[in-house]
Specification:
alpha+beta; Heat Shock Protein 90; 3 domains; five-stranded mixed β-sheet; 7 strands; rod-shaped
Length: 460
């Protein structure tokens, strides 16, 4: 249960980090003094590690006290020492409940946990010989953990506490009463020191390794979030430029439409079949340009669902295929709908444009044969575009979805798949690409139906 709760808070932390980064990118106000959500998630994992270490300490103290008291015959104040152990057990149960129901764990709370552990160790050492107890070396374990988990100021506070505790134990403690049969106290001390050293070394390696893994995971999440924020900033800037260009292109496109209409009515041009065919293709291309401009303006001014209309998977794909075939009359597109039972969805303008981009890229390298296949895989709509072109270069496959990755060699090219990947990702899906064994390439778009379906029509 604790691991599931920890995973949930990790996802919340990542989402929070994205919101904070997006706010910074957009120039929105946010709390500069607040701890990073990714750091909070890592602190929660580290707090769980401290709880696990405390359980290890409880078991180790019970075993050690039993061995020393029963096997070695050294008289110990069992009742007070048992009270300290019970206090650690109670602290652990409280900590478990606290971590489970609290979203944030900060540096101060980690310091409190380590301080209580130092206090418990000091109490046990006070009851069992003070500074002469060879297990006083366990202070180094607490200091090591503090250096890994805390900021510099808190770490030095913990160092000061451990040193002060050890200095206090040199003067105030209950001396150990050795059995009369024991004639070599120094040998007992060396044995205890060796056991303490081994215990210190094992615990440091085990727990510091796990803490380092948590820190590496946090750094990886932060790197991914920074990359995502940079891509989102790039998309925002491209969107602003595209919206401005769309407004500017409206007037010249309208003028071209009027001129082509006038040419259509000129007898000299209308009587020439070849010129009439060329004029028809020019009008088709012009209409597509106007449609693209309109789509950009709609996407810039309306949220998803406001500018879209209800449809079904089959109708959405059939309309999309017909429109693309109209705008690309020289390309041959084969469409296979293996989706199965139809499902009501909302037609998404951005998704439609993303699929158009994939088909356009395929048409540039494989004009005579392109296949679009629609399938249903559990709760996902899977669209696969296959061509018979030269395929992708290895470096392009390894950087799929990165901007300006193109084989065309033109300035500014290579944004098509970048936009496709980001549109699909916004809808909760993924895009993958591969080269086919024989010839050509295949691009696969996986979209969760839950984000496309209307209301409760999707039952999973």
């Amino acid at each position: 249960m604790l691991e599931r709760t920890s995973d949930l808070h990790d996802r919340e932390a990542i989402a929070g980090e994205t919101v904070t980064t997006a706010a910074a990118t957009a120039g929105l106000p946010f709390d500069l003094g607040a701890p990073s959500p990714a750091r909070v998630a890592t602190n929660r994992k580290n707090m769980v590690l401290l709880i696990q270490l405390r359980w290890t300490a409880v078991i180790g103290q019970i075993v050690t006290i039993g061995f020393v008291h029963l096997w070695m015959g050294i008289v110990l104040p069992l009742l007070p020492m048992a009270g300290v152990i019970c206090g650690l057990v109670a602290l652990n149960f409280v900590s478990l409940a606290w971590v489970r129901y609290r979203a944030n764990v900060d540096n101060r709370e980690l310091l409190i946990a380590l301080t209580l552990d130092v206090a418990a160790l000091t109490a046990q050492l006070y009851l069992s010989g003070g500074a002469t107890n060879p297990f006083s070396s366990l202070y180094l374990l607490q200091i090591t953990l503090g250096a890994m988990l805390l900021d510099a100021r808190s770490t030095w506070s913990l160092v000061a506490l451990a040193c002060a505790s050890f200095a206090w134990l040199t003067a105030y403690h209950q001396p150990l009463v050795l059995p009369e049969s024991s004639s070599d106290a120094f040998s007992l001390y060396i044995t205890g020191t060796f056991i303490g050293l081994v215990l210190d070394a094992v615990l440091v390696v085990v727990f510091v390794t796990r803490i380092n893994r948590n820190l590496r995971d946090r750094d990886a999440r932060l790197a991914a979030l920074r990359q995502h924020a940079a891509e989102q900033d790039h998309i925002v800037r491209m969107g602003l430029l595209a919206s401005g260009a769309a407004h500017e292109l409206g007037t010249p496109l309208a003028s071209l439409s009027v001129i082509l209409g006038d040419w259509r009515r000129m007898p000299a041009l209308a009587s020439d079949p070849e010129l009439s065919h060329d004029l028809g293709e020019m009008e088709t291309s012009l209409q597509r340009c106007k449609s693209i401009v309109t789509g950009i303006l709609l996407s810039a001014g309306e949220a998803r669902g406001e500018g879209s209309s209800p449809t079904t998977v089959a109708a959405f794909l059939a309309t999309l295929v017909d429109e693309w075939r109209t705008t690309r009359p020289s390309a041959t597109l084969y469409f296979r709908n293996a989706f199965g039972a139809d499902l009501p969805i909302v037609s998404d303008i951005a998704l439609k444009q993303a699929i158009f981009n994939v088909l356009d890229n395929a048409a540039e390298v494989s004009r005579d044969w392109i296949e679009l296949m629609a399938e249903r895989d559990a709760g996902k709509l899977v669209l696969t575009v296959i061509d018979r072109g030269p395929g992708f270069a290895a470096e392009m496959l390894s950087h799929l979805g990165k901007p300006y990755q193109s084989t065309k060699g033109n300035p500014g090219s290579g944004l098509g798949l970048f936009l496709v990947v980001n549109v699909v990702r916004k809808l909760g899906g993924v895009v993958t690409a591969r080269n086919r064994p024989d010839i050509g390439a295949a691009i696969r778009l996986e979209l969760p139906l839950a984000t496309l379906a209307i209301g409760d029509d999707f039952d999973g």
